[in-house]
Design goal:
Layout (H helix, E strand, L loop, with lengths): L2 E5 L4 E5 L7 E6 L2 E5 L5 E7 H10 L1
Antiparallel strand pairs: 1-2, 2-5, 3-4, 4-5
Length: 59
């Protein structure tokens, strides 16, 4: 099951890869956070478009 949700208020996209709850999260690059389940597998990815645009403009 994969589901994507866009949140206009935060200009972010969340891609849910599995229906499991996140046990921890890791920022893998500015504006991209991976949610990891208790089993160590990725359950979702959060992309903050606004933060990505800011870091590209500043870079």
């Amino acid at each position: 099951m994969m589901r994507a949700n866009y949140y206009a208020d935060t200009d972010s996209l969340y891609v849910e890869l599995r229906g499991a709850a996140a046990a921890t999260s890791r920022e893998i690059s500015p504006g991209v956070v991976v949610d990891i389940g208790a089993d160590g597998e990725v359950v979702g990815i959060d992309v903050d478009w606004n933060l990505l645009r800011c870091s590209v403009a500043a870079g």
